[in-house]
Structure formats: structure tokens, C-alpha cells
Amino acid sequence: MSPVATGLLGGSFDPVHLGHLVMARIALERVGVGEVWFMPAARPPHKSDRALSDSHHRHAMLSLATLEQPRYRVSIEELERAGRSYTVDTLKRLRRAPGGRRRWCFLAGADAFAEIGTWRRPRSILDLAEFVVFPRNGIGFADLRRRLPAWVADRLVEHPASDPRLPGSTNGRPGVHWVPVEVPAVSSTEVRRRARRGEDLTSLVPALVAHYIERYGLYRARRGAA
Q: Which of 32, 79, 91, 133 has its CA 20 to 30 A from that of 161?
């Protein structure tokens, strides 16, 4: 029996937005993962230039955003650890944990995945999990291939938009799957910018998250660049 395909969606989620949720829904409905785990980071290594909202706020917003989808899970794996959150360490822990015999599929936008060569121990990461990569910020398949190191580009498999489902087996080597299905061009930066101005957020985040941001006055006191 094949292991369950489990999508992993990591990030600061400051805050979670509709782009995240659409990516997760596509993974469930069209790519074929059985469930999606959202993993908020305690201290993402690539976002050291600004202070994050308290972890309990980010976790609470994710819990509200995923409340009605039984195949979503909010994991506190990274929030419970001190120090920076590195993907390679998280994947190793997940694979060692009880029930860790899963088909781990890391969900990522093309802009983030294009930088994988700068992540900690990227070759190990690609041996620990598959990647499902979506177009983002104007980066298409050909552009992504050009940006990737050759040893990563060699694993990149292009799936048609009409049938982006994962293959039944990895054949012993996790792949990188290009899924040419657009997700909303929403960013947490834009959500924070609008929140600072007191503007309506319901086109960018779920209604419960918008209400939470308003209730606790999140992002209103931020200064400097978003």
C-alpha cells in the first residue's frame, strides 16, 4: 500500500491569506494529496529584516482560516522549537516521528522555490520530500528552469494543467512537480499594508481572519517597510 501523500505548506503566515488557501485546495482537489499541513515558522531564516507577529496570533489566524476543512491541519512543529526554522530539520523530524511514513509533498510558489539553492542543505531536502511548485510573480516553467541549479532542474517535471495529479510512485527519487495552475496574486505584505491603512481585507483573507486582525489591531503599529 502506497504511503499517504501529505502536502506541507510552510511560511511565516503573517498573516495567512487566500493565496495560501487556494494553493492548498488545488493540492487536495487536483494534485491528489490526501491532506495539507500548514506549518508556521518560529523564525524563518529568509525573513530576518522585520519582526513577526507573535506566534499565538499567527497560529490563531491559521486555525480560523482552516476551521471548515477537515483535511487541513495546523502543525506547531516549528513554533515549538527555539531558533530559526530550517526545512531540512523539519523534514527529518517529520520522517522520524510516529506515522512519519508518508509521501511528503512540499508546496511552494515558483519565486520561493527558485531560491532553493540558498536553503540549508538543499540536496538533502530534495531527497526527503517531493515538491509541488506553482507559478508565482510571473515566473513560468522555462524561467524557473533557468534560475535553478542543474541538479535541481534535472528533477523538474512539467505537468499539464488539465491533469496535474502526482504520479503513483516516486520510483525511489522524489521529484519536483510543476503544476501550471494559477493561484491568486496575494501577498502577506499587501495584507499588512492594507491593514495599516485600515482598509478592507476581505478580498485578501478569509472573513474570520479579517475580523481577527481588526479585533486585535494587528499590523496597525508597524513602522518602515512591510
A: 91
In sequence order, the β-bridge partners of residue 176 are 131, 156
- The answer to whether residue 137 sits within a structural domain is yes
Q: Cell numbers at residue 214, please?
A: 481588526
| pLDDT one digit per residue (tens) for the chain, 226 residues | 567 799 999 999 999 999 999 999 999 999 999 999 999 998 776 655 568 899 999 999 999 999 999 999 999 999 988 678 899 999 999 999 888 788 999 999 999 999 999 999 999 999 999 999 999 989 999 999 999 999 999 999 999 999 999 987 666 678 999 999 989 999 999 999 999 999 999 999 999 999 999 999 999 864 443 3
**Domain count of the fold of the chain:** 1
The C-alpha cell of 146 is what?
533557468
| Domain with 26 in it | 5-184
* 223 DSSP assignment: -
Q: Are 108 and 11 in contact (CB under 8 A)?
A: no
Are 56 and 13 in contact, with CB atoms under 8 Å apart? no
Which grid coordinates belong to 67? Answer: 476551521
In this structure, what CATH number is given to the domain that contains residue 173? 3.40.50.620
9-32 CB burial, b ≥16 within 10 A, e <16 = bbbbbbbbbbbbbbbbbbbbebbb
**Calpha distance 181→199 (Å, rounded):** 29
Is 119 in contact with 129 (CB distance < 8 Å)? Answer: no
Grid-cell match 507573535, residue found: 54
